[in-house]
Amino acid sequence: MADSDPASFLTQANAILRKNLTYQKRNVWSNVRLIMIPFYLCLVLVGIQALFDSQVSNSLDNQCGCKCIHKTRDETCQMVCGVEYSTRDQAVFCAIPNPQPWPPLILIPLPRNRVVDANLTNVSCKQRNNCPVTILFTGNNQSLGATLSRNLFRRSFPMNYSDLLFSLADNVLATTYKGSPTNYLDAGIVSDRFIYNIQSRCTPNSKVSFSLGQSPLNFTKEMRCGQGLNLWINSSREINDDIFKGYLKGNSEGMINEIVAAYDLLDTNRTNFNVNIWYNATYQDDSGNMPPKLLRVPRLVSLMSNAYLQYLKSPRTRMLLEFVKEMPKPETKLRLDIASLIGAVFFTWVILLLFPVILTSLVYEKQQRLRIIMKMHGLGDGPYWMITYTYFLAISTSYVICLMIFGSAIGLNFFRLNDYSIHFVFYFLYINLQISLAFLASSAFSNVETASVVAYIYVFGSGLLGWLLFQFLIEELSFPRRWIFVMELYPGFSLFRGLYEFAQYAFQGSLTRRQGMKWKDISDSSMDKVFYIIIVEWFFSLIAAYYIDKMSSSGKDLLFFLKNPFNKYLLPQRPSLQKQVSAVSVEMEKLDVTQESEKVQKLMRAQRTSHAIVCNTMKKVYPGRDGNPPKMAVRGLSLAVPSGECFGMLGPNGAGKTSFINMMTGLVKPTSGSAFVQGLDICTDMDRVYTSMGVCPQHDLLWETLSGREHLFFYGRLKNLKDSKLDQAVEESLKSVNLLHGGVADKPAGKYSGGMKRRLSVAISLIGSPKVVYMDEPSTGLDPASRMNLWTVIKRAKTNTAIILTTHSMEEAEFLCDRLGIFVDGRLQCIGNPKELKGRYGGSYVLTMTTASEHEKDVEVLVQDVSPNAKKIYNIAGTQKFEIPKEEVRISEVFQAVEKAKSTLKVFAWGLADTTLEDVFIKVARSGQAFNVFS
């Protein structure tokens, strides 16, 4: 027997938690397969990395060269590796104890991109591809600027091959090739492009060759003369407009004008050397790093320093920057962490694969209406959300922890180099967002297959778009960063951005043998912005999901708060029609229905009542949509059902029975009127009503993997049954519906037959001896024996219970129901016990007679003689049916007339029947529908 108090929050939470754990136990292999997905993908990444290492990293071209040198008489040799045995490409991997010194270079634009003159108008040199190299000057002293600019470039190029580096450093050497990450091989010298010697005046076709370095790092370069051009600009503001044109950006005429550098002499004089050097920093290496460009800047500083020394001292004064060189290095190998580079898209798929799992689980409960039946049996929204959310969070957390363990165990630097705590925090935040999004998205789907297809499109589409589009935009420095932030508002891109940053730090860490991302790197890596986006979206999506769920379960419009509260006064009313319909309905209302309404009014005035259910003028109006008028499903229903009574509600489809049941079970609120269950208002005390209520829906709403016993334990806990009371109630329920024998109780419900499922649904509705039970066609689909057994169970259960039962079986209604009400178009047309209704609406006999077709007229004459008011209601192939008023005939008279007719007519068969409950139902339903059409 259920406790009088409703199940507490913790009791409900305990019930659904136990149900989820049992469900999880039944699907353990599905969970194992789910958790193994990260393991398989990590193995794929390891395989890709191993293939790359064997074919690329460990190939002979990407390691220091070796040679087998004969050192013994038996012609054996010893493998010796070093620079002297390497090709030029292999040499960079060898140990370099004494790195090659390189002459310092400045970076100049390509000839076709150079500034031509102060007005930027002369384009003839661009066509000849020999535009000068331009350096801008400004400052407070133009005459000083003119002097220093004359000292900047030499007029000739004397070459001293005995001291080549000194000779090269005494001139201004330039290249159009940007710097490299290291200076073991200067990209400007080893490339195929020319080296330019910038002079104040060039001899046509002047060029010179020189050799530099030792084999295999020796290079012969051709050096050409480059015309230097110094332009004075009046202010630094004009320089700002000229020098920061941007990398490969044209002016209004489409010309590209790039400047080598600009010197702002400021207040420089003979006693004060104060110079700002401006240069275009948009030249970068492919990864967007700045340091390679800085290798070209020292020569610009040296150039101006020497010009100033010559101004102070003499033209022969020099303080040369003779060479630049790297630090010594040991032998190295190519280490490219390909697994980390492509890990971003792989792990995007891995994390997002949880989304379809969660979404389909939620939609499954919605599609199978399991959420509704749990709510009907007393499960509140709070416990459901808390346990379901925690349940999915626990699964997701286990999933990502296994991912981190698998990835680290098999050696992926993506996990091993980056801080594990950052990994976990990022994944934990995102799986919370993902669960919230799944709850939010579940409100848009009612079919598992559709939800699954859309979810997997989202999973793989997000990974591919992140890899092919979003990553490209991140690395494209000209793309505005604010649009990157906007794109990260899409959850798939915020996940990809975080994984991309992990991948970049792991790749760089593997390349340089350093650690990856640490907490101090959060701001530099933009991970802090990703964290903020995920947290904010998590908060708002969770609130939106909960709000939509509450509105949909209560039947309210999502934007109800935006509706004008004065609309009902502004919209045109039709009082005359409403009054007319009301007057007609009062006039046509049957006496029994009126008496029921009067009884309800007396019960409403009484302080206490023995009636379990009291409904007082309940109405339900569904708002009109798409231009359709409002639909009145229930029209002022008044009904009182005492404890111990089974009330049968009969009516055609669409009569409003389901709307009435939905109001009584708390799924929708009444538009007007009130109803009380055990003295509790269904509008304000529904949580307490649930503890004394049972529901058997028309369709079996069961978990296919849970057994019958586990179903009853779950719903028993929702009814606040505990310990021995719960065990006893479950055993009694299983026994009452004949599910206790043969191990049926412990089989999954998905393996039950239709009749067994129906019996289990009835047992669920009756567990805990509820005070009120609603049964919607409980015996549908049962064989006669099972149906009779089920009726016996229901009849036994109504002793201390008020039952409202809907059915289309008149036999079931007569067997179970103490009273019946025929419901048509939202109204009770009549009410009473089956015998009363048949007596009230069935005042006629039905005579059926089958003869030869030629005797049909004779049969009609015979019936008219017996009863002048008899009506023919059926006629086909010699078989005729007549409705004979009871007050006009006696049964003996009918028998005598038929026996007399047999002597003159050939009567094949005949029969006389009293009016059935089915006849009453059809008659009342037709008259009720005719009235509603009229009204």
Question: What do you see in this structure?
Answer:
The protein has 935 residues and is α/β, with parallel strands linked by helices. The chain has five domains: 9-46 and 336-554, no CATH class; 64-94, no CATH class; 106-312, no CATH class; 589-830, P-loop containing nucleotide triphosphate hydrolases (Rossmann fold, 3-Layer(aba) Sandwich); 843-914, Alpha-Beta Plaits (2-Layer Sandwich), CATH 3.30.70. Helix content is 46%, strand content 16%. The chain is built from 35 helices and 24 strands. The strands form five sheets. Strands 3, 4, 5, 6, 7, 8, 9 and 10 form an eight-stranded mixed β-sheet that branches. β22 (871-876) and β23 form a beta hairpin. α2 packs antiparallel against α12. The radius of gyration is 46 Å and the shape is elongated.
Query: Rg, please?
Result: 46 Å
Q: Work out the helix count.
A: 35
In helices, the fraction of residues equals 40-55%
- The count of domains is 5
Strand proportion: 15-25%
What gap, in angstroms, lies between the N and C termini? 48 Å
Show unreliable segments.
246-255, 284-293, 566-588, 930-935
Structural class determined from secondary elements:
alpha/beta
Sheet bearing the most strands, described? 8 strands, mixed
Shape: elongated
Q: How confident overall, as mean pLDDT?
A: 81
How many individual β-strands? 24
